[in-house]
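Quick start: what a row looks like.
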Amino acid sequence: MSVAGGLPRAVERAVVHRCDAFQIFSKNANQWRGRDVPAAEIREFRAKVKAAGLHPVVSHASYLINLATTHPPLRAQSLAAMGDELDRAEALGLQGVVLHPGCYTAGSEATGLDLIADALLELFAARRRGKTMIILEHTAGQGTSLGATFEQIAYIIERMKDHRRIGVCLDTCHLLASGYDIASPEGYAGTFTLFEQLIGVDRLTLFHLNDSKRPLGSRVDRHEHIGRGSVGLEAFRRLVNDRRFDGLPMLLETPKVEGRSPSKIEVDPFDEKNLSTLRGLIAGNKAGGAG
């Protein structure tokens, strides 16, 4: 949900879409530094979230952050930016910050994974009293991005000695693009069996539900409206009815209608359509309740 007009406006947008949970950028995703959020705005945001009964609420970290880099200035900048993301989330009472693990611009894949784990441990060590999680998002595997295999994510978690504040986000578009065939019944079953073996469903914190413009194994991250891409409607039907994932938040990152006023609190027609499609897939949900 957009935070245009202030963080509390994102809560109002979630309410008009009948959401149970939502995600925000707590600062501009393409900038290193964000504005200082006034204490009154933080209090209003938290009060509106509580009044609406929304849970969980998460933020997504800036796309500039790269904890896998071997370049010292960029690593220091990334650590500072991720620390700011965590501090903002803590102040806002968010469950966690969703993070793309990073890209190994130099060195090896193994070195990059070690650097990510070490950076996360450093961030947590500086915030021992914090509750906010870091939620590692499985990636599409474009270029040298890490986190495109369950093995890589499992390695980071293991190196962090199964730290209690590390979660995992699975994105349906990324799963397909990285080579996990969730579109077929057999591939869906195999994918989540492997996830359970390597990581464990208890570590899974949330889903991003996005269809994919590109086919299986493309390694290209291009989101499409639900049911209009290569993931397909039946995969989403299986997912929203999978009892293993009861109670887990499933958040949309599908395209929004362009050219609309960013300051208004109104239903986005694309969001409404995608939410309606997903709600209609839930067994026994003929009318489509909140989702």
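That is the whole record. The first strand starts at residue 22 and ends at 24. The longest helix spans residues 72-92.
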